[in-house]
Amino acid sequence: MSVDLPEYYFRVRENGAFVFRVDTENRQRRIELDQIANVNIKNGEIKPHGDRKLSDEDLTAIRHWMDDRRALLAERDIDDILRTVDHLNLTTHWAQSRASDDQLEAVTDQLLLTMHDLRSVLVRKKADRLMKSKSS
Fold this sequence. Notes:
Elements: E1 8-13, E2 16-23, E3 32-40, E4 45-48, H1 56-97, H2 101-135
Antiparallel strand pairs: 1-2, 2-3, 3-4
């Protein structure tokens, strides 16, 4: 394991993370994780763990992690959507070249409804953006 451990460890959870201070300066020379806060990425809330007071350094590190995490999640969202485009293209090829009638029967209605819903949202959002840019 690396000698230069970070000062903080963030155990990621669905809406944020549990924040721990990494401690290697103890008698047993073991790595100890001391929970100092709970973080919610969605609403920006930082809750100290228990009756702990967070230092300015703690808050700065946590806010920096939150900014980095939000950026990473935004990148992943776009990557997921681009993967979906690839999957739709692969699905089109499958439907055209390899799918049996039974396989198509099993998925056609769900795909058509999903694509109709997606198209409706995309067209409405595109129209909203065009109207907004014309009024600016």
